[in-house]
Design goal:
By secondary structure, the chain is of the alpha/beta class. The chain contains 14 helices and 11 strands. Strands 1, 2, 3, 4, 5 and 10 form a 6-stranded parallel beta sheet that branches.
Amino acid sequence: MSFKTKFFRIANPITKNFSFEKFFGSLPFDNLILVYHLVSDEDVKHVKHLFPYRSVRQFEKDLDFLSKHFEFVNWEDYLNQKKTSKPKLLLTFDDGYSEFYNIISPILLRKGIFAINFINPKFIDNKELMWRNKASLLVSEINENNNYKNKISNFSGLGDNLETNISSILKINYENRNQLNEIADFLNIDFNDYLKTNPVYLTTEQLIKLKKDGFGIASHGWDHPLYNQLSLEQQIDNTQKSLDYMMDNQFLNDSFAFPFTDHLLTEQFFDLIFKQNSDLKFTFGAAGLKLDSYSKNIQRIPIETKNYSAEEILKNEIIYYQVLKMLGKNTIKRS
């Protein structure tokens, strides 16, 4: 458990007893960027073991709270630093899940709120299931099927303890992602069949419609790698391939959001990717309220943290930032 997670667990029972106005004056920036993944009232097998997603009711409650205290802006207004009477807020989503088209965009259009969806081009049109989604789906299927529970113990490298086996599956990393295919084959689980009956990602047609409706479509890496497990050359290639897709399809090629985290990314990477892409304005991490020594890399606030509401998360982020500032650790320093 990270220090930040421990801090939130201790702080939240205290901060939830005070109104947001008590914290608002300590907000360190007048521009905030939030990041969600999906919203659903359903049991989403390919996501449920990865992060806690919002229900429709919870999402609308978040938006109503945020609208009271912030002014939602679109990408152009964010770039131009539009003057607003309240702090500006840019809403973003990651991974290009189909729920953005079916559930989220109708809500945002009704409320007049813009958002950018950072997508992985490799998975658009449901050509393949992303490796982390494969892990979650495998765990869901094993938990729901006694035959799978018994059979998985015979897979090479796993044992008789179901909880340990599930943990091992969820820990499989990008480099070893083919192990997920091997486990699926061993259990006779077909990821392609799942995609045919459960469209996980947005389609090209939906992306075009979302663009016409005013939403932004931008890059999240080609196939959702963990960047600090890649070589510098691999980092650049994965990023460039996804930015080229944006250019070829006339989506946004002036922004990029790192999948997972930008932890341990060096100045050399940023220098190279900005040099190669003259239209690129900003890249985005997801470390919460923090400064970054590389000025063009901006940190977003993850909202799907345990079951905290947007209000609770922002209160805790504000307090956490002030603590880090006192310790001189409120800035991510790149080597």
